[in-house]
Amino acid sequence: MTIFYFTSTGNCLAVAKKIGNGNTKLISIPQVVGKPDLAFADDVIGVVFPIYGFGLPKMVKKFLETAKLQGAYMFAIGTYGNLPGACMLNVQRFAEQHGYKFDYAESLLMVDNYLPGFNINDQVAKLPEKRVDENLARIIADIQNRKTLDATAGIGWRFMTAMIKRGENLLVNGKQGQRYEVNQNCNQCGTCSKVCPAGNITVSDKVIFADQCEGCLGCVHLCPKNAIHLRHEKNEVRWRNPDVSLKEMIAANNRK
């Protein structure tokens, strides 16, 4: 089994690790996207990614566009914190447009790390009702049993997803990081640069954000000094999945 993943605060890496159960090749999408000859074959191939605004992170979309994936059984898992929209339906259609098929497509409700929209304390308090472990156990059993599952979404969700993605394409232009604020707590440790999946951050005497930001908020959540802030964040509480270490996050996303 080979699982490709994109992670910013650890949710998707934690899911990929649990699905793989130590007997799987885990490949970080930021480490391979953009490379030539992206051809992968295995008996089972999976892709785990966060759902951003009812859609895919730009880097994940690029990977699915350019990679040649071949497996006897293939699955896609999207993690989300509020609503998944029609994302998984669109992912299955997108894959078929590019010459392969996800036999199983499912979404998993977890902690939402989008700070302008959600209070992390509230998200953590809601973990019992999100039933993450229970739902993930079901997904793992489905994959082990090679279950097939086609995603569905009503016309309302499909319309709403299309409208939100159209607006997001205008707003998510790679320059989001340039709107982040870095306060006096910053000691130029470079963690933000190391966990950025886009390689978008340079640290010298100050933190510099270029124009390739994925909007994943990994730099904001994983800063050891809590020095990076969004203008409209709900509070200063941050999130890293407890099943994933900062060292693992750096290994997954450091492209320098």
UniProtKB/TrEMBL annotation:
This is 4Fe-4S ferredoxin-type domain-containing protein. It comes from Anaerocolumna chitinilytica. Keywords: Iron, Iron-sulfur, Metal-binding. InterPro entries: 4Fe4S_Fe-S-bd (IPR017896), 4Fe4S_Fe_S_CS (IPR017900), EFR1-like (IPR047964), Flavoprotein-like_sf (IPR029039). The keyword Transport does not apply. Residues 178-206, 207-233 form the 4Fe-4S ferredoxin-type domain. GO terms for molecular function: iron-sulfur cluster binding; metal ion binding. SUPFAM superfamilies: 4Fe-4S ferredoxins, Flavoproteins.
